[in-house]
Amino acid sequence: MSLTSPENACHPSGDTPPSICVLGIGNLLWADEGFGVRCVEALQQRHQFAPHVSLVDGGTQGLYLIQHVQAADCLLIFDAIDYGLAPGTLKLVRDDEVPRFLGAKKMSLHQTGFQEVLSLAQLTGQYPAQVLLIGCQPQELEDYGGSLRPVVKAAMDEALALAVAEIARWGGEPVPRREPLSGRETVTMDELALAAYETQRPAPDAACREGDERFFPQGA
Contact at 8 Å (CB) between 169 and 52? Predict the structure, then answer.
């Protein structure tokens, strides 16, 4: 018997549950650029899902993510997106609009790479039946080693709620996590987990944050 009803399955026919991929992309090292990866990290810490749901820290891997996209019937993407809105604002983009939107609204090199991933998946005929992009308007990007700004971090709860609702609609069976994760299960390395990343950051006088003035003179 199918685990999903016809109206919420990504592929409405057959008894095989749809393959669901939740993908966070971005760069943890550049402040709000890390929004997507932090969302996947938090989603895994708070919820458990059916076996056919995979959570992926896509980082800035670009074309190396093609296998995840091609294998997915349903694809949910978290990312920091420059919508030209107030910092922390969430915006949802669906299905065929996603690759076109990323192509028109490039914010960083990783988005150029991921747009190519989606285009390649379309060309090979292995494109998810449903795609949802949950994007957040960043506040700060030029802070090397920085973390999410408070307004962007505050937006994560709503982003996660939207994601859980969509995964449930797709048949991913989200439930609150009952058992803590082991180190080998986490989508991000322990050293890069949010708490460790924020508490172990060196002081500004010990680590370059906005460009070493020996090589990038200020006001030159």
Answer: no
